[in-house]
Amino acid sequence: GLGSQMLQWRRAYSEWTRASSEDDDDE
């Protein structure tokens, strides 16, 4: 259901933001 989709989205978002933060830190 929506809960499952949200969990998957938040999980991917967490990984993406973590990788993005590392790249942004360089700037």
TrEMBL record:
<protein>
    <submittedName>
        <fullName>Vacuolar protein sorting 13 homolog A</fullName>
    </submittedName>
</protein>
